[in-house]
Structure formats: C-alpha cells, structure tokens
TrEMBL record:
Keywords: Membrane, Transmembrane, Transmembrane helix
Residue ranges crossing the lipid bilayer per the database entry: 20-40
Protein name (database record): Uncharacterized protein
Origin species: marine metagenome
Length: 185
C-alpha cells in the first residue's frame, strides 16, 4: 500500500459533514413544525362552533335557537310562523366537523380525489353548505322552505341580512311565498 501524508491510503479520512449542525437544524425544524401546526389548530378552533337547537314544539311554531359563545350570541331565536310541526323532531346540532358534508367527486384511479359539498339532514331540513375551516365559519341551511345562513358578522334569511343585535334577540319568519307568479332574485 502506498502511503499518503504519513497514513495508509486505505484509512478513512475524517468526515467533513457537520453532524451537530444537521441534528440541530432537524430539531429546530421539527419544533417549528409542531409549534406551527398546533398554533394554527388553536387559531382554527378558538372561537368554537355554532350550536343550533331545533325545537319543534315551541310556542309560535318550529323554532331554531342559535348559540355562538365567542360572538356573544346566546339564544337568538328564529321562529317559523305558520309552519306545521308535524313530522319535525327536536334536536341540537353542533357544527364543528368540516368533513361532515364532503364526499369525493370521482373514485377512478385517474382522479385527484377532489372534494365537493354534499347536503346532509338536520332537523327541519338540510345543511346545504358549511365552511368550518376557521370556527365558527359559515353554515347555510334550507329549513322549512327558507335559506338560513349563519355567518359571524350577520344572519342571512332568504338573502336578507338580519343583525345579530336585533332587538328581542330573534326574528319571526313568515311562511315561504310559493306560486308561479313569484319571481326569484
């Protein structure tokens, strides 16, 4: 064997890879990932979900009672005047699961498994849309012929905004207008 710099050619030279630096860099990256992930999760869930009570036997007609703790909404009532309570059931729905109304659009191997919205049943009707990425989010329901949309800044009933600060803490909704001479906007 030939010698090089007073050592054998076959001896391994000391590695120039900075292992301490790479280990520290990996540790800091891992720490930042977990802090970022749980920080975003906290921001996403900190205000809490919409909680909606459906009362089929309320005085005045079927009633929804809306609660959202972080927004100071406690017991905002939407009374469906003149609606029949026959066949309706009372229940409480908490809108905190963003996957509840998502379904895959296509299951073929070529698809990218995109998600689309699918309505799901709630008492008095169906939830047709929800965006719960950052709670409380937006929830749109079709209840007893009316479109009800819960948003942090306002309540929308049949495309009309109603402020959450409405006197008396609620609103009465008349029966939906039906017929061939009704023009939708």
């Amino acid at each position: 064997m030939t010698k090089r710099n007073d050592g054998s050619w076959m001896e391994r030279e000391q590695s120039n890879i900075p292992w301490r630096f790479l280990g520290g860099f990996f540790g800091v990256t891992l720490l930042l990932y977990f802090v970022g992930f749980y920080g975003v999760e906290h921001l996403r869930e900190r205000k809490g979900p919409w909680r909606v009570e459906f009362d089929a036997a309320a005085t005045g007609g079927p009633t929804t009672i809306i609660h959202q703790r972080a927004l100071g909404i406690d017991g905002f009532r939407v009374v469906f005047e003149g609606a029949s309570s026959g066949g309706l059931k009372s229940d409480v729905v908490v809108f905190d699961n963003p996957k509840l109304n998502a379904q895959s659009m296509d299951t073929t191997p070529e698809s990218s498994q995109e998600l689309k919205q699918r309505s799901f049943e709630v008492p008095f009707g169906e939830c047709i849309y929800q965006d719960l990425m950052f709670l409380p989010g937006v929830v749109t329901m079709n209840l007893l012929g009316h479109e009800i949309e819960l948003m942090p800044r306002t309540l929308v009933i049949d495309k009309k905004e109603i402020p959450w600060s409405t006197p008396a803490g609620g609103i009465a909704v008349p029966p939906p207008v039906e017929g061939p001479d009704v023009i939708s906007n």
